[in-house]
Design a protein that fits this description.
The protein is mainly beta. It contains no helices and 21 strands.
Length: 271
């Protein structure tokens, strides 16, 4: 019995699927029936830090765990590290599209494989690009681009999108050499991120060793609203229960618990 991968790192609230294989003595696969799972922390105590639904593991609480799958006398373990969301690379092993690749060993997946000794490398042109799909929309606060080869872009364009169709320019970057470009982002909802090398540093192509993306959580679809004027408003819950009547808009939500409220005719997030 084998489980792949044998070790995963995920953020609390995120899920990952594993592959379970059971072979008979002739090399054929047994059906995956009656497979059970248990979760223990590193002390060996049963834990709810990770939940298991079939092949899907969902992180519940930060910490280190071992998930054991058993089928009769057979068993296999998966080491699960649940990290704070801010430390979780949202781009890791996510789907990637590229404008081109120099060869099969320099494909786009090499830029999100977690290994900074590998890289994506394009054909020998300017304006080559790589785009990653995070598979959900997150509030992004940091993008890190690492290069490990002279085939880099001296000028690059970074864009983002929530639908993969309509793109917004985030910024243009200047790279002076091989290294890391750690970019601060002001809590922007993103699902798709595209890096375009506008100008090559050499006659070779454009490459990225690793594209990392970090955020504070999933995007709820409700924008935060800055309330700053003195207009009198009513404050309601999303269920329509009035909490405050005729209060100045500037401090309408002061002292309320974290959540989403209706202030006047707008949704407001209290963090």
């Amino acid at each position: 019995m084998t489980v792949s991968p044998s070790a995963v790192s995920i953020a609390s609230g995120e899920s990952v699927a594993v592959d379970i294989t059971i072979l008979n003595q002739f090399g054929g696969e047994y059906p995956l029936t009656d497979v059970e799972a248990s979760v223990r922390d590193l002390s060996g105590a049963l834990s709810g830090g990770v939940t298991v639904d079939g092949r899907m593991l969902t992180a519940v609480a930060d910490g280190s765990y071992v998930v054991t799958f058993t089928a009769g006398s057979l068993s296999a373990d998966v080491a699960v590290e649940v990290v704070p969301f801010s430390e979780y690379n949202l781009a890791l092993n996510k789907p990637v599209e590229v404008s081109s690749k120099e060869n099969d060993g320099l494909g786009g997946a090499k830029a999100v494989d977690g290994d900074k000794t590998t890289r994506w490398g394009s054909q020998f042109n300017d304006n080559e690009w790589l785009a990653v799909d995070l598979l959900d929309t997150y509030i992004i606060n940091r993008i890190v681009i690492t290069t490990n080869d002279i085939a880099i872009a001296t000028e690059a364009l970074i864009e983002y999108s929530t639908d993969g169709i309509n793109w917004t320019e985030f910024g243009r970057r200047t790279m002076k050499g091989v290294g890391t470009d750690d970019i601060a982002v002001s809590d922007v909802p993103m699902r798709h991120i595209r890096y375009t090398g506008l100008k090559r540093a050499t006659g070779y192509g454009i490459g990225i060793a690793e594209l990392e993306v970090y955020g504070s959580g999933r995007y709820s679809g409700v924008e935060s609203v800055l309330v700053s004027d003195a207009e009198a408003v009513n404050v309601y819950t999303l269920q329509g229960i009035m909490l405050r009547r005729g209060v100045p808009q500037a401090n309408a939500t002061a002292g309320l618990p974290a959540g989403v409220y209706i202030v006047g005719n707008r949704k407001v997030v209290v963090r």
